[in-house]
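S1.2 Input.
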Amino acid sequence: MKLAGGFGIDVADLFHPDLTDANSNSWTLTRHGEGQRHESDNYAFSYLCPDYNMRRMVPVINTVKARSLEQFGPLLAHPGQEFLYVLEDAIDLVLSDTGTFRLRAGDSFYFNSNIPHALISVGSGEARVLSVIWSSAGPPP
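S1.3 Output.
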């Protein structure tokens, strides 16, 4: 996310920058299991519908791997807003200015993503979270 912000581009453009699908300006479809995959130390991402050229939202399925704040490392921040919906297991959402919120499957949370934050898996396995990131920095819809 830091890399994308530094270049002034959408996070998903790092994985699918030159798409020319004729439907990219009106709709796009990602079938089950076909999201654009990326992995970091803390998350395994599956970007959904990354080929929509005029997007302002970045929908992602996150598998949360970090099991502690120490393992996670420095909190992350990026422009915009973020919506979280826990699909499986449980997480702690750590917000630098507010504290920690325990979220379980079925819980949701919406926040300004310029606040440094981290997702920590606290259940019996790796939690899965639907995350939708919105930024006004992209092209108009």
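S1.4 Remarks. The chain has one domain: 2-134.
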